[in-house]
Amino acid sequence: MIAALLAIAMSSASQPSLAAIEAAAWQDADSKAEQLHQRDLKTDIDVGGKYAVQVEQHVKMCTDPEIIKRIQRVGAELADIANLTRSIATWGDKRFNNFNYTFKVIQDDEPNAFSLPGGYIYVQTGLLKIIESDDELAGVLAHEISHAKFRHVATLQRNANKLTLIQLPIILAAILSGSPNAVAALEGTQLVNTTLQNGWTVEAEEAADYGGIQLMVKSKYNATGILTVMEHLGVLEKNQPQFSRQGIFRTHPPSKERADAMIKCMKQYNLPIQRSKVSTSFRAIVKPDDKIPGAVVITFAGKDLFAFAGNDALTRADEVSAKLNDFLDTTPEMYEVSPGPDGAILGGSDRLLKFVADDAAAQNKSILELQKQAVATIRNALYTVTFQIWSTH
Questions:
Q1: The dihedral of CA 77, 120, 154, 266: what is its sign?
Q2: What is the pLDDT of residues 61-92, one digit of tens each?
Q3: Most-buried pick from 101, 117, 288, 347 (CB within 10 A)?
Q4: In sequence order, what are the beta bridge partners of 350?
Q5: Residue 114 has what pLDDT?
Q6: Same domain, 196 and 66
Q7: What pLDDT, in 10s, does the model give residues 352-391?
Q8: For residue 318, what pLDDT band results from cuts at 50, 70 and 90?
């Protein structure tokens, strides 16, 4: 009897507990999920690599070492962040997806950038012509990294029964490349229509914008750059409509909704919108005055605002340009610019600048005349800012 009880006890002791069984099951499920995850990533890398070869056979690659070095430097910094930190994906694959990102430059006047699955990212030289700082370049690359990181092509494939993952990179490469022949060949086909109608230009774009801002926040770059690039594109699209049916305007259309979403996201992160810090188009700049010997002039968007003269002209101009940039970054109302006492110009209740006798003498005008002129030129600068912003938004 005692032996039988001991046998039963020994038999029970050798069996795993319920908790151990559950833990093993979870571990097995996690292992299978990770295997599936790695398979998905490998598929992206294989497909992207295959079509990257084809893309590069049909375009002219940039050979300028300085341009290539710049793109790869900024891209590598953001890629490291993308592979070390998790980003929130509002659309796409929400898992923590890592890739060995590559960054290359295509010699093409079309302003464009695009990514293929697996982290193959391309920037065209035409886009570099409208990018005004490394912050704006970082905004472009962070956006494209996010497309790859969130596996948007694979997500689009799952949402479109008639498309396969093998077909999609061909279609996207043709559209994104901006090649008129490639686009014309596919224009109106079911594949292109399905691609463009399945959320790529809405959910995917806003998700990549949000992902890009998340990467920018963790980097040394000013996140405003991702916003100002889109504003530049909005102005370009409006002024040069021949671009609007190709390349970046086709798949990355600037819109009020995207801009509003970006601004909302930046507010969530308590990020100030500092256009003057990332874009010369939105910055008051001090330079020598070609018309008045010894004087300096403050310009905005290529136009002279007002000049300072005297021994302290440069010091005053530097101080005023900083104040003016901070003021214009807030996109104030026109009425907030007004003349103040003793030759001052006010921005709201704050003094932006003050004209002195040396300024009046050098320009052969009264201080009152300089005030009146300055109010008009600052308001014109403000109009330039709001026109560029709201023509996009």
A1: positive
A2: 999 999 999 999 999 999 999 999 999 999 99
A3: 117
A4: 347
A5: 87
A6: yes
A7: 999 999 999 999 999 999 999 999 999 999 998 887 776 5
A8: very high
Q: Are residues 201 and 323 in the same domain?
A: no
Q: Tell which of 272, 291, 321 closes a domain.
A: 272
- Domain carrying residue 293: 283-392
Say whether both 44 and 189 belong to one domain.
yes
Task: Give strand pairing partners of 161.
Answer: none
Residues 87 and 155 placed together within one structural domain of the fold = yes
- Is residue 158 assigned to a domain? yes
Per-residue H/E/C for the chain: CHHHHHHHHHHHHCCCCHHHHHHHHHHHHHHHHHHHHHHHHHHHHHHHHHHHHHHHHCCCECCCHHHHHHHHHHHHHHHHHHHHCCCCCCCCCCCCCCCCCEEEEECCCCCCEEEECCCEEEEEHHHHCCCCCHHHHHHHHHHHHHHHHCCHHHHHHHHCCCCCCCHHHHHHHHHHHCCHHHHHHHCCCHHHHHHHHCCHHHHHHHHHHHHHHHHHHCCCCCCHHHHHHHHHHHHHHHHCHHHCCCHHHHHCCCCHHHHHHHHHHHHHCCCCCCHHHHCHHHCEEEEECCCCCCCEEEEECCEEEEEECCCCHHHHHHHHHHHHHHHHHCCCCHHHEEECHHHEEEECCEEEEECCHHHHHHHCCCHHHHHHHHHHHHHHHHHHHHHHHHHHC
Q: Is residue 6 part of a domain?
A: no
Q: Which of 142, 144, 117 is nearest to 41 (CA)?
A: 117
**What pLDDT, on a 0 to 100 scale, did the predictor assign at position 181?**
45
My answer on whether 228 and 328 are in the same domain is: no
Q: Which of 308, 378, 367 is nearest to 336 (CA)?
A: 378
Same domain, 211 and 331: no
Write down which residue in 246, 272, 298 finishes a domain.
272
Q: Which residues contact 45 (CB under 8 A, 6 or more apart)?
A: 99, 100, 117, 118, 119
Give the total number of structural domains in the chain.
Answer: 2
Residues 236, 305, single domain; the answer is no
Sequence-distant (≥ 6) Cβ neighbours of residue 209 within 8 angstroms = 143, 146, 226, 258, 261, 262, 265
